[in-house]
Amino acid sequence: MSAPMAPSRIDWRDLLLGLFLVGVATGTLFATRNLAVGHAADMGPGYMPRVIALALLGFGLFFCARGAWRAGAAQAIEPVLARPLLAVLGAVGIFALTAEKLGLAIASVVTVVLASFATREGRVLETVPFALVLSGAAVLLFIKVLALPVPVWPR
Fold first, then answer.
1. Lower CB count within 10 Å: N or C terminus of the chain?
2. Model confidence over 74-116: pLDDT tens digits?
3. Which residue, 155, 150, 120, is CA-closest to 135?
4. pLDDT digit string (tens) for 3-48?
5. C-alpha dihedral over 27, 30, 36, 40, to 10 degrees?
6. Phi, psi of 78 (to 5 degrees)
């Protein structure tokens, strides 16, 4: 008789998430390698992408380590559900295609409404007011506070 196999000490979900974050951070650091960094008081175009990439790298290494040495039974990776994936990707794509023509205000509302289809629990009476508030916040932040040259309404 052979001895029973010991349960895996690897948590594949954490390990794969960590590897994904490390990959994104590495790609971002590589893509921004030629941008001037500057410093906190005088930020160059590469400052924030690198700060965020280094934070992602730190989180990725943390999750890799946690996934590799987590005690207990490994958890199975659940299959990817098509509905949330398509709703979120579709919402981002629609925003990218409509923000210039429809303006930030309308494109934001459309994006939030489309993204709400990612879950079955979304309700129109909750989603539409949330979309309107979020759209108003986006206009205030990007147009008034940051003074970005983005159209608010359709051209």
1. N
2. 566 788 889 999 999 999 999 999 999 999 999 999 999 999 9
3. 150
4. 555 556 778 888 899 999 999 999 999 999 999 888 888 888 889 9
5. 50
6. -75, 150
- Residue 61: helix, strand or coil by DSSP? helix
Give me the torsion for CA of 131, 137, 141, 143, rounded to 10°.
70
Which of 52, 46, 43, 21 has its CA nearest to residue 33?
Answer: 46
Output phi, psi for 40, to 5 deg.
-60, -35
Strand ranges (E), the chain: 38-39, 42-43
- Report field, pTM of the whole predicted structure over 0.70: no
User: Which residues, in sequence order, are CB contacts of 115 under 8 Å at separation 6+?
Assistant: 87, 88, 91
Nearest residue to 115 via CA among 82, 136, 91, 99: 91
Distance CA 104, CA 98 (A): 9
* CA nearest to 53, candidates 90, 19, 28: 28
Residues 6+ apart with CB under 8 A from 23: 60
